[in-house]
Write a structure and sequence with these properties.
With 165 residues, the protein is of the alpha/beta class. Helices cover 21% and strands 28% of the residues.
Length: 165
């Protein structure tokens, strides 16, 4: 099954043209999907017996900066039995009514999403709705800000320890 076939199957199932092929020529084709359909699309990709993406290998959060006003979440999926890879891309506004971006957690579909989502929350500041344990994973719980944001301002010190060098 080609990327085009997968996209057409998704468009038909979810009755939308908002699913776009971003890049079909790489080893892991990229499909952009709407944030509000993420959970349903991923559930379908996991359960459909013609697709069966049974493994989420990686999740990456990207801050495009205040100028662009958006963030991205990239999901790398694998169907081990079909030896097929797929990359999903979701674009989120950087802030919604003054709040950080939020998207559905996929930890109910793929257990590997749990720690990947925590890392994106910790370093970029993206919230994952219905995550079972959304808290910092790399930084102390009282750390201020999210260091991989383009507008992050580094603290001078943390509990008396010099941070800036």
């Amino acid at each position: 099954m080609t990327t085009h076939d997968i996209v057409e199957r998704l468009k038909s199932k979810f009755n939308t043209d908002a699913i776009l092929v971003v890049n079909e020529k790489t080893a892991q084709p990229i499909i952009q999907i709407p944030a509000n359909l993420l959970l349903d699309i991923c559930q379908f990709l996991h359960e459909d017996e013609l697709l069966y993406f049974d493994f989420m290998a990686c999740l990456t959060g990207i801050d495009n900066g205040p100028e662009k006003g958006s963030m991205e979440v990239i999901y790398h999926l694998t169907s081990i039995p079909y030896q097929r890879n797929l990359t999903l891309k979701v674009i989120l506004p950087r802030q919604i009514d003054g709040q950080p971006p939020s998207i559905s957690s996929l930890s109910s579909i793929w257990k590997t999403a749990d720690w990947h989502e925590r890392e994106a929350f910790d370093l970029i500041g993206i919230s994952f709705e219905n995550h079972p344990d959304l808290r910092r994973i790399l930084l102390p719980k009282d750390w201020e800000g999210h260091p991989l944001r383009k507008d992050y301002e580094e603290q001078d010190s943390y509990h008396g320890i010099k941070v800036k060098y």
